[in-house]
Amino acid sequence: MKAKIIITPKKAVLDPQGKTVKNALAHLGYTGVSDVHVGKYIEIDLDPAADRETARQTLADACHKFLSNPIIEDYRLELE
Amino acid sequence: MKAKIIITPKKAVLDPQGKTVKNALAHLGYTGVSDVHVGKYIEIDLDPAADRETARQTLADACHKFLSNPIIEDYRLELE
User: Fold this and answer.
1) Where are the beta strands (DSSP E) in B1-80?
2) Which of B4, B33, B51 to mutate to test the interface with A (most CBs of A within 10 A)?
3) Pick from B30, B33, B47: which is nearest to A34 by CB?
4) What is the pLDDT of residues B24-46, one digit of tens each?
5) Which of B3, B11, B15, B59: disulfide with B44, CB 3.0–4.6 Å?
6) CATH numbers and ranges of domains, chain B
7) Which helix (H) or strand (E) holds A38?
């Protein structure tokens, strides 16, 4: 079982990395870009025998407690 | 139109961030984690009128040239 976690800065929070990528794209001639957000991607390989619901709960807990900073970041957790 | 780019270290490359997250999860009692990979996630908002195929090509080019380091990283590009 695989868990994919995407952590992005909240919309209201300054995203200097995103701004830099946006400017770089514009300088290199890639037009039509209206906004860029840069975040983190975490892929976790889990024991295939693990219970899906328990895994979801423990990972959501880990996301909230230490993988993301819930004050300035949002996370999305997908299990597959 | 939105482009989502996921950049991950290649399997053969050391991933110290992934190792750290794996160890941290184990220390905090989250068992059943066999491997962790940490990468980057870039979300790009594009002009809705832009041509899909052109956008895909220019973004693939940007990914290859400066968003990722193709020697040590893989990227996945999704348009939606």
Assistant:
1) 2-9, 33-46, 73-79
2) B33
3) B47
4) 989 888 888 999 999 999 999 99
5) B3
6) 2-79 (3.30.1280.10)
7) strand A33-46
